[in-house]
Amino acid sequence: VIMAIISRVLLAFLILYWGGFALVTPITVWDAHTYNVARIPLALEGGLFGNQYWNSDRQVANPWGFDALHLVFFWLGGGASLPSYLCFVGTLAIVWVIVNTHRGPNAATLCALGMFSMPTFVYQATSTKNDWAVVFGIACWFYFLWLHHRSTNKWLPWGMAFSLAFAAGAKSFGVPLMILAALTTLCVLRRHVRDAFKFSAALLLATVLWGSVETYINNVFVYGHLLGPESFVKWHTNNDGLRGAVANAIRYAFGSVNFGVDQRDSGFLVGQCRQVLEVVGLQDLGCGADFLDLAFLKIGWEAGSDYGLMGFISLVGSVCIFLRSAWRTTEWRLAASGFLCFGIVCASVAWMPWNLRFLMLPFLLFLIASILSLEAYFVRRPGLKAVLNLVILHGIIVYPIGSFNKSPRAFWAAIVRRENATFQERPSMQKVFQGVRSAVADENMTVLFLHAGEDSWILPFFQIEKLRVMPRPHLTQTPILTGLLQEGESAGLLVLNLSFSPEEGRGWSIYGKFAEADSALYLWRNPSNRGGAPRMSRFETSDGMP
Amino acid sequence: MTPRKSTSVTGAPGQPVASNSSLISFLLNLTHTTRSDLYAGVQRNTFTRAFDHWFCAIARRIPFWTLLVLLILSLFSRLWLMLEK
User: What counts of helices (H) and strands (E) characterise chain B?
Assistant: First the structure.
């Protein structure tokens, strides 16, 4: 009884604690600063179709069903991690309700705590990444299908369709999952013809509304390919067929090994994985040349973590369940579904050191399968339950404390040292940000031309107050500033990660050079500041481009 | 308090366990233990029963409302970003 009370109190505390973290934490992750959320201000400037302001293919090519909904949080200036956290809590609720119904509240609570013990789950839930959106979409689809199985309701087929479209629109990896889930739905609903028809029609409509179809159409216009530039697509996909998929499965399996201790850049696992790949002759397959030199990061941030000790146990447990358990049991089906999803990831996505997050859905299924299996033994072997509770407690406490940017210290820093927390992942950008802000304060800089490279952190500059940022990646000539500036105001040209400098004799002066590679801020002071030179009446570039 | 539905080992889902043994029957009914609790090997007290009841009631609604909010936000944001210009 005491354990039951403790587990409930712990679950309530964890939901509130990580909810608070998601609420206050600034946007910290590289991907959001370069494209996930950074694409929003660029789209605000130039829309989606025909936009000339993009500075990275990722801002154009990736589906934006989930990225775009951060628009409200961009306007609010905070809370951007809440959508991911809602997806996590929504998935947790679904797991709890279904497990509670079939195995009781203790098993359900254990599954929910197990989710909190997996570092990648929690780190992704408190970031702006779109991986939880895919899992949540699929979980909602399954929940509605499960409800439909219990009692039919005319809205449930609509719910299934909308959930799948949401998952597909969040990330292109959601598309094969949507297709698989749609086929499964039609198979399950084969005796409910009306509902199957309703689901099909709803899926068509929902795909148009939430499937991020517009980004695929834009890709065809811009790149002539549905998924983006061909080199980009090739880089991100497994181009070696079944052998590449097996190589990736080996890499992911070794990457998931966790002994519950600090395994940063685990050289031991890398060595063992290399040996296995060499023995089976698959060392050069499944990933691009850039990643053949293996690395298992395990450094405690969103994309550089594994699933902890509980994840490793779940993976091993699911292998045992899959190989030894009886067919048609719930546990076997969960484990088999997990391996199916695992296989889809290995076969479709190229292995990269930060791609373990693609395996959140398989690991969720592995976790539930393993806990349900272990629960069956608990009545006879109570000692096992104590061990499992300890493993889960270890995951809940130890990993976040050792995390790079999700520790309780990071929680505190997100409140009192927000700027430091924002740039923790790329500290060299903080100096650039401070330089721009000091130019705004000291030089009355009101306009900033942003000339950024492919992997530049551009998002923070759009969040500086009293500064209008104008992205202009395609201009190569010095602008002649006019009408944009009032008397006493200055304009800046921020060059980020590009070897570019404005032409001499156009009035630009260097304001600051930064440690960030190929980055500098140039300043253009309004001539009227320096003795009343006439203000020009329009804005143009020296090559005549508006 | 309404007992939740649960898959029982032998008894009816969600029903307090009936037993021939009066002591066991008394204890189980005292804590209102269902078959699913026996399955997990832990009895529940008033706090856990109340927590489970309310958590279940909330958890049933969370997926619907979360999905609805995210779908509305997604549609609104994409339309705004595409059409504002």
Answer: 3, 0
Give the DSSP letter of residue A240: S
The pLDDT value recorded for residue A476 is 46
Task: Sort out which chain A residues have CB atoms less than 8 A from B35's CB and list them.
Answer: 104
Helix then strand count (H, E) for chain A reads 23, 7
Task: Confirm or reject contact between B73 and chain A (CB < 8 A).
Answer: yes
Give backbone dihedrals phi and psi of A470, rounded to 5 degrees, phi first.
Answer: -120, 105
3-state SS string over A74-142? HHHCCCCCHHHHHHHHHHHHHHHHHHHHHHCHHHHHHHHHHHHCCHHHHHHHCCCCCHHHHHHHHHHHH
Tell me the C-alpha distance between A197 and A58, whole Å: 36
Query: What one-letter code names the amino acid at B81?
Result: L
User: Interface pTM (ipTM) of the complex?
Assistant: 0.91
| Residues near A353 by beta carbon (within 8 Å), at least 6 away in sequence | A291, A294, A295, A296, A297, A304
Neighbours of A360 (CB within 10 A): 24
Collapse the DSSP code of A492 into the 3-class scheme (helix H, G, I; strand E, B; otherwise coil) and give the result: strand
Q: Which residues of B touch A94 (CB under 8 A)?
A: 59, 63
The gap from C-alpha A292 to its chain's centroid, in whole angstroms, comes to 23
Q: What is the pLDDT of residues A237-251, one digit of tens each?
A: 999 999 999 999 999
Among partner residues A71, A97, A136, which is closest to B77 by beta-carbon distance? A71
| Strand pairing category for A445-452 and A490-496 | parallel
Q: Count Cβ atoms within 10 A of the Cβ of residue A389 and give its class: 0-12 exposed, 13-18 middle, 19 or more buried.
A: middle
Q: How far apart are the first and last CA of chain A?
A: 72
Q: What are φ and ψ of residue B45, in 5° steps?
A: -105, -170
Region for residue A544 given its phi and psi (left: phi exceeds 0; alpha: psi -120 to 50; beta: otherwise): left
**Is the pLDDT higher at B18 or at A187?**
A187
CA distance A294 to A278: 13
Q: What is the DSSP letter of A243?
A: H
Residue of B40, B55, B78 lying closest to A96 (CB–CB): B55
Residue contacts between A and B (CB atoms, under 8 Å): 159
Give the nearest chain A residue to B67 (CA atoms): A163
What would the two tokens of residue A13 be? 């505390």
Q: Which of A457, A406, A427, A425 is nearest to A81 (CA)?
A: A406
**Residue A511 CA: distances (Å) to CA of A435, A484, A487, A522:** 8, 20, 20, 5
pLDDT at A486: 78
**Single-letter amino acid, residue A194:** R
Dist. CA A146–CA A179, nearest whole Å = 18
Q: Which residue of B has its CA nearest to A381?
A: B41
Work out the burial of residue A483: count CB atoms within 10 Å of its CB; fewer than 13 is exposed, 13-18 middle, 19 or more buried: exposed
Tokens 């958890």 belong to B59
Give the integer Cα–Cα distance in Å for A244 and A284.
Answer: 8
